[in-house]
Each structure stands twice: as structure tokens, then as C-alpha cells.
Amino acid sequence: MSSQPLSSPGRGSSARPELSTEILAFVSHAIDFASVELRKLNLEIWNNPETKFQEEKACALITKWLESQGWTVSTGVYGISTAFEARFSVAEGERTVCYNAEYDALPEIGHACGHNLIATSTLASAVGVSAAMTKFNLRGTLVVIGTPAEETGGGKYIMANNGAWKDCDIVIMTHPMPDFSSAQMTTKASWKFRAKFHGRGSHAGAAPWDGANACDAIVMAYNGLALLRQHIKKTESIQSIILEAGKAPNIIPDYSEGSFSLRAEDSSSVEKLRERVIPIFHSAAAATGCTMELFWDALYEDVVNNIALANRYTEYMLSGLEEDPKDFLDPSAQPKSAIGGSSDFGNCSYIKPGIQTLFKINATNMPHTPEFQHAAGTDYAHTEALRAGKANAMVGIDVLLHEEFYRAVQMEWEESMKARGRI
After folding, report:
1. Which of 37, 325, 374, 417 has the fewest CB atoms within 10 Å of its CB?
2. What is the pTM of this model?
3. Which H or E run contains 417?
4. Which Gene3D superfamilies is this protein grouped with (predicted)?
5. 1 pLDDT exceeds 70?
6. Which helix (H) or strand (E) holds 423?
7. Which residue segment(s) compose the domain that 223 sits in?
8. What CATH number is associated with residue 254?
């Protein structure tokens, strides 16, 4: 094969070029050749789970491997010590393709969301695209961004607020699922917060009139949210737990605290729900004579799926990588339990066009369960992570090679942002 830059081997410059079996075969071989090394990395992360913002071993493992492959790596980027950014290029070009890696685990049950597989699949894509860039002198920049703390920490929210993804043209990642695959992940927007009420302690029997009951305040807020639930949309939800509300019944509690979570169909909807919730807490404080503080965590925006990217991924999975069509679902056919969650990848999709694809790992239960944690460590799951990595690699290569395809991707994203009032 020629070492000159490729324009469109075996396909035209249209927004929907034919599949390049030549490049797909080359990328697949490069990823298969790296499979043994990637499996070692996969198991090392799986066997050493680290929770949000503590992913030091995983970060070091991945970055040292990328450096050994000739990548330029920076760690502690975009406001998080365990985040990284790795870059690869062989020829200057206009477009930059980014793949996200996740590697944080859940408390107590380890990699029960399969983030070891997300890292593995991302590295597979990095191997495939970088090999193609080197072999065919493809113009452009390839980026891998390591994103800690997806599980409740909102790592991508923090990183986005510190400038991540702004110089990228597309952002791609993937996620394991129990028994189906898809080119799109449908999520809800989510916003978690804590409430703290400060009252005034006193003797509950001798002088209750001297007290301001913080327990009453948080119970009022809890019940207020329960009443609000009957007046919100079916696509919205509110979850609440009381963490602390006193130590003894004969003491008027001077402090209480709760944790709460809001979910809605999209970011605009969750903001409107937030505006309805806040007055409940102010009212509870006023009614009980307490003061109140609200602490809002990271906003997990809904994933804005790019159909142009998703369709291309589907073509490669079904036509070139032998994915079983019966396991490959349209988002409308996905189980309801699979689309009730949230992902901070949504924050990326509001910055640049992107997709978060899904691949099956034959788990007998949903993510965040011991059964899923077990499946995430199997050879089968590793093989499927590589398959998804190959398709994602080809989507990225198409963006580098085909101006018209990229323009279609960008135009669709701009229309999505206009519809959401972002541009």
C-alpha cells in the first residue's frame, strides 16, 4: 500500500461513503495484534478497582502504556489529578478525533459498571486509528482523554468547566451492557445535591420552646418532595434519603442533612425541576426557624446522540464486524431499565458532536450488580470491547478522511444545539 495520504479509497467523497474493507481489515488486524497487551491492562484495572478521584493506579497504567506507544501524554489535566490527555499525530490536519476513557470503580463492588472495558475499548480504538494514521499518513490529531469519577463524581462536568474537548471535533466512547448492543445510549439529565439544616439544640422535655428542630426541617423537605412527585412528568423523578437528623430523642436536633437526586428528560427539564424543588427547602427552613444550605453536585447532562455518527457505527458493526443483528438494538427498543440512568458523557455531547455506543457482555444482571462485575472480567467481554473499539476507530477515521461526512455530523449537532437553546 502507498504511504501517501488517502483521500477516499474505494469510496466517494459523499456524506455516506461505502465501507472501506481495506482500512477496516488493517485496523482490525492492528487491534487483534494488540489484544494480549490490552487484556493485561484490562485485567489489571479490573483486579484493582479504584473509586472516584482515587484512580491513581489505572491512570498510571494507561498513560505509561500510551507513552510506550509513542503518544504525548499529560496527566493531572482539566482540574483532576487522575485525569490525563494523550495526543498522537503524524501529519498536520484540520480535524481532531477524541476517544474518552473511563476507569473508576464503584465502592464495595468494584468494576460493576465495566469501566475497565471502557478503557480497554478506547485503547483499542487508539491502537487502530494511530496505526492507520501511521500507515496511510492520515492528516489530523488523535486524542485520548482519561476521565475519572463518572460514578457520582461528575468528572467530565469538572473537566468541561476547565476547557476539556474544546479543541476536538468529535468525541466517542462506549459502554458495556448486559445483553444488547446499540450505536446510541439514551440517558436522562441528572442533578444531585445535599441539603443541610442548622437549628438550635435544647432539652426536648424541659425547654423544647428554646429549640429549632433541624429534624423537623428535613422531614418537612422530604415530605414536600413526596408531595411534588404527584405533579411532575412521567419522565422526571426525585430520590431522597435522610443522612442525619439527630442523635437522641430527648435532645432537639440542631443539625440535619439529606442527599437528593433529580432526573429529567434533558438538561433544560432538570433545570426547571430544580427551580420547583428549591422553594421546598427554603419553606421547610422558614417553618421550623432553621437556616438551610444547598450544595449542588455536578450536572449530568443528557446524551445528545449524533445520528450520522451512530449510523456509520452501525454499518461497521453489522456489515464489517459480524455483529449479530438480533443483539443490536435501536434506542427505541432498548429496555426501559437501560435508559433510566445518566452519564456525564452527556456533558461532552453538549460541547462537541459525539456518540456513546453500547456493547453486550452477556451479564446476567444490570450494571452496578455483582453479576455484572463478574461478567466485566471475562474473555468474552474483552472480545466484545475490542469489536466496539474497531467500529469506533473506523468512525473516527471517516471523520479524518471525509470532509463532507464531517460537515454532516457538525450540521446535525448544530441543529440539536439550536433546538436546545445552546446556540
Report:
1. 325
2. 0.91
3. helix 403-419
4. 3.30.70.360, Zn peptidases
5. no
6. none
7. 189-299
8. 3.30.70.360
